[in-house]
Amino acid sequence: MDFTYNDEQRMLTDSLRRLVSDSWGVEQRRERAGQSALDQKAWQSLADLGVAGLLVPERYEGFGESPATLVAVHLELGKGLVSEPVIPSAVMATALVLNSANEQIKTECLPLMASGSLVCSVAYLEPGQRNACRPATTHAVHEAGSYTLNGRKKLVWQGASAGKLVVSAVLNGETALFLVPADAQGMAVQDFPTMDGYRCADVELDHVVVDEAALIAQGQAADDALASAMDHGVAAMCAHAAGAMDRLVEITAEYLKTRRQFGRPLADFQVLQHRLADMLLHKELATSMAYVAATALGESDAAERRRLLSLAKVSVAQAGCSIGQSAVQLHGGIGMTAELEVGDYFKRLTHMDFLLGDTDFHLRRLEELLEG
Amino acid sequence: MDFTYNDEQRMLTDSLRRLVSDSWGVEQRRERAGQSALDQKAWQSLADLGVAGLLVPERYEGFGESPATLVAVHLELGKGLVSEPVIPSAVMATALVLNSANEQIKTECLPLMASGSLVCSVAYLEPGQRNACRPATTHAVHEAGSYTLNGRKKLVWQGASAGKLVVSAVLNGETALFLVPADAQGMAVQDFPTMDGYRCADVELDHVVVDEAALIAQGQAADDALASAMDHGVAAMCAHAAGAMDRLVEITAEYLKTRRQFGRPLADFQVLQHRLADMLLHKELATSMAYVAATALGESDAAERRRLLSLAKVSVAQAGCSIGQSAVQLHGGIGMTAELEVGDYFKRLTHMDFLLGDTDFHLRRLEELLEG
Amino acid sequence: MDLTWNAQEIAFRHEVREFVQAELPADIRTKVFRHQRLDKNDYIRWHRVLAAKGWGAPNWPVEFGGTGWNPLQRLIFEIECAKGGAPRLLPFGLGMIGPVLMKYGSKSLQDRFLSRMLTVEDWWCQGYSEPGAGSDLASLKTRATRTDDGYVVNGQKTWTTLGQYADWMFCLARTDTEAKPQRGISLLLIDLRQPGVTVRPIRTLDGGVDVNEVWLDDVNVPFENLVGNENEGWTYAKYLLGHERTGIAGIGHCHRELQILKTLAAQTLIDGEPAIRNARLKEKIVRIEIDIVALEMLLLRVAANSDQGPGPQASILKIRGSEIQQDLAMLQMEVMGVDTWPYDPVWMEADAAFSGPGAEFAAAASAGYFDMRKTSIYGGTTEVQKTIIAKMILGS
Amino acid sequence: MDLTWNAQEIAFRHEVREFVQAELPADIRTKVFRHQRLDKNDYIRWHRVLAAKGWGAPNWPVEFGGTGWNPLQRLIFEIECAKGGAPRLLPFGLGMIGPVLMKYGSKSLQDRFLSRMLTVEDWWCQGYSEPGAGSDLASLKTRATRTDDGYVVNGQKTWTTLGQYADWMFCLARTDTEAKPQRGISLLLIDLRQPGVTVRPIRTLDGGVDVNEVWLDDVNVPFENLVGNENEGWTYAKYLLGHERTGIAGIGHCHRELQILKTLAAQTLIDGEPAIRNARLKEKIVRIEIDIVALEMLLLRVAANSDQGPGPQASILKIRGSEIQQDLAMLQMEVMGVDTWPYDPVWMEADAAFSGPGAEFAAAASAGYFDMRKTSIYGGTTEVQKTIIAKMILGS
Fold this sequence. Notes:
Chain A has 11 helices and 10 strands. By secondary structure, chain A is an alpha+beta fold. Chain A folds into 3 domains: 7-118, Orthogonal Bundle (Butyryl-Coa Dehydrogenase, subunit A, domain 1), CATH 1.10.540.10; 121-218, Butyryl-CoA Dehydrogenase, subunit A, domain 2; 222-371, Butyryl-CoA Dehydrogenase, subunit A, domain 3 (Up-down Bundle), CATH 1.20.140.10.
């Protein structure tokens, strides 16, 4: 156990912090979130620092970094509410593809993903689903050297930014995963803004035909690959959220020191001091749970890995909710407006509860483990 | 709807307040709680004010007062943490017997109970039971003009003070209720102190033979009578708890005004002010719920009556827990000692959660009603 | 003490319920239940329906055209209207400046304005808060300078709810800059339809624009529009803020949102199962029912004792009402879950051609959660209310 | 950054675990798991078992007979001992006055006292708090008056944990009454086995007598028992209180109580069904597991960075540790439910002939709940800790 950043981690996080502070100011960030299309320059600047290739092993031209580095990086991204598709592409899709036995896909895609020239996202949720990550109504049929996909996927994270989508489908009663170009014939991608400054897409697949080589995995291997994507996504998101909390506590403390009421700075009021202290407390515990999530990724026992990740997810979501509410309350009316960025953090921290399995889902997993 | 005490209610509560403040000081109260036997003088002083006969109709020489008066009286009793068997005898046993079709029992017992010369308690819980109020292992057998009872009852509220016990037993597969003299042959009553300054008893019935006339009710009527005892008990207990909260808030406010730390009275610290404000808030809501419980007693629809009573019980228990914890915390170390009476209130308010159905039980009832 | 409803009270409840069912326009009801934005005309239509029935001012005495109802009746009315899907009554005229004019205004001001409030001939807004003075009214900076014909007002007001529709503002302005902070403030009625008035919407977290900033730049106010005496506005302001003691709890809103929550929970499937069968959600709904029942009983107690001065109960009602409204919004969001993620403020407009990808209520559920955070801030923050309570107990 | 346990750390954990399993006397383990009262000798026996193994002072450097362990090892040791059912180490010598003597005490004081602490030859107690000065040490009133041979001490101390067994007290006393409140205080070592010392137990909520009042009435302290310099006791006191940064979280206690909770929940039937199948209880247990995992990771982070000065984390650990211990006690009480109602303090004695009418753990479960309320009060209340945190963030 060692919590000190090594030299590489220190350099990486320092560079990232500078980049984010230069290019993820509130106006820049909001403008990009208002667009359907990916801002290539912003994305490339992240990729250039290694963010896109962090989890990609060196043999696929990435950096093969540890889960610990993943936490360090996503803490920084969270501080700046970076909304580019790091989690869907560089974390989830990458972890998923890494689980594939299809060496061709790995050789073709991973280097492109690591360099930033290919963005992917995982299209796994279907209408009527909330936490389930198995496909139900999207079907794949195998004939004549190709697969034909039909179905609908919803809430695909930054789906409209992706050049390729990992699509889950039912194939012969089992889960199968396909890598589908976003512009394939029969694909209809409808993009929406989200409450928390991301984008998401509904995807309709109408007789989409892909090559046999597009099969990433099927059966247990596909379920495992999807689970790995979720596991990595949860860990990254916990760190992202902890980073966002860190910055939100800073912003709030600064406001309390500056703003005066009844002739004194707000920071003089003991009740507000204590609420700020509670925010810091929750932030420190959430950061700790982001570390726990990272340790989970290195855990070989699947039940224990899920247990730790679910513990982390529930805990971080709860801390985010509490810190977000407190930040707005401590700012008073002005915290309710879009003029400050307090609300941006609040909304990001709120919606993370629902992404990648909500609190009820993760508690259920934990409760099942408890009973044994 | 009218919340103003009428003249009689005002006179009754005024007298009661004086009596309690004179004779339920912390030393007097603790000394009596340390004894197995009922303090006849204290009990009679309550009965003389009408407390014992409040629910007894005038034709049985009581006062036939409304549920509203029940609340008013138990608010006062709660303020002084009165531990005499008002709830087990004057509320629960009385309500139960009133449900009986056995006119002989009513004529014999109710006047005695109203005057204070007979104390009763309801022995319904059995080893292994927690919230259930149906008998399971205590059995009654009917032969030759009498009933023979065998079994064990636990946690009989002020059981050792009671001259007669209402005992529930299984008779031909149904619930039956019997009025059993505490000193009947075969009865063994073992008395214990409780954490919150009451007494309770385990009762063993070893071939206890009672007359046929001792049957209070059987079958549905018995279940209804028991339910009525619980309903009335819950309402009285909610008021008692709200009264205790009222006094505990007063005690705590007084302490904050008096005690100095860091050169200022504690009352100057905003965080403590707000915690006191929270206590008041919970107290006011709990008092409101005590009123709700009283309205429930007048509700003819059984489901709605139970719903309101369960809502009240859960809410009052939660308020009691919160107020008790806050009172100790605001007192600091001294609040942890037996020197002050803070702890007496805290313990009373804590254990009321477990009596007459705990929070889990009442929430379940409410959840079942929700699903319809 | 009698804890049962008497026959008259029961009959009145039925009368209101049936009236709302019969007379509330269906399109308004739908908007309210779907949490869509109401437009100016929606409010006015409903007010006029009530006025036609003689119920235009439930909290006013009969002599001014009010119903003369007692507090319990007003509470019953509020709950039944809200449950039936009616918009809330605009508080600016009926609940705020109206009662002030009745108590402190000249006969001519009363004649000029009061009866028009019942039918919303004038849309009123509030001019209390200023940037830099949230809960702290004493530090306000807007100045009214005396001229020959009246006052010239300069300053900036903020948090002006629905100010974008307003014709008139009741405005606190400093008329004596030498006096102590709480002295030297006057209450003026300002016609907003004149040059020098600029209204700028403030976009809130959920993308809504219910509140506004209002700039007053050499705005004219004739002497006749001064309420009461010059420099005594502080007294009127306190009366205005302290006047309504039970409405602040939002009990009607709570009842309606609970209904909506239950409907959502019954209709929404979570991975194939109705949300209402979820054990955690069931407990949360039960617990919020507890909170609402307790709040309502406390309201009844306060309303019944309205002859007593305002005690800590008014602050308790404000605190709890806010919390319950927030919790209800949070639960609605939880029921809809991840489907609340996609969101565009235009989906909240009733006539939006497109209402988002989720279920009918999904987008609004999350927007409602963010919007409701305001309830513990406006009208005296929860922190301010707790300080008030503590002062009352501790006498400090 | 490396978030995995290395081989050495894993091996060490096993070593401790096996040692505790093998060497902790079974009767002590039973008492601990049943929450019965430990007597003086129970503590001493366990300390001597550890001392014999060379583990008598886990937090001391090797030169003073300690283990020289790093903070992570100490944490592992604490957790494994607690989980195995060992009593907590007496903090008064090892954690409090011991380190102060090492840093500020004369060689002769070190030689006289330190090695005896490992085997509890002297039972130490704390003489900091006074009636009327809880979290506010600066206002202490006990006076030490200089005479020819030393000091004569007069005053009253309170909250003296396990003081009924104590041979020695380290005591803050005022040696200069003219100086500012925080100046003029000295740290004295007082032999309690002399006339003028009166120890009176303070009965707490649960009927226990773990804390005491100690009266010092013309008690003699030779000059050689002054620690460091006269009038500089405040510095030593702060060092003493700030020395232990991670032990205050009670993580070992939390782990053990969680185990007990799970056992209770599995064994206890609620109306015929095992408590562990209760949906509400399951969620509560899961949530407290979350809290414990988070607390432990925060502890690891703080322990690993122990070269940095104490930050707000120390206060966070104290606050959360207290809350979790309280929640665990509450859950144990909830599991036992109404069976915790009957209670007599004598049932908590291990050799009590009669242990009450309920299940094995019932009486202790409710007593534990009340007793644990102290954790958010002693050692700096939660309120004091939050103020410390806020000051660090706000720099005020």
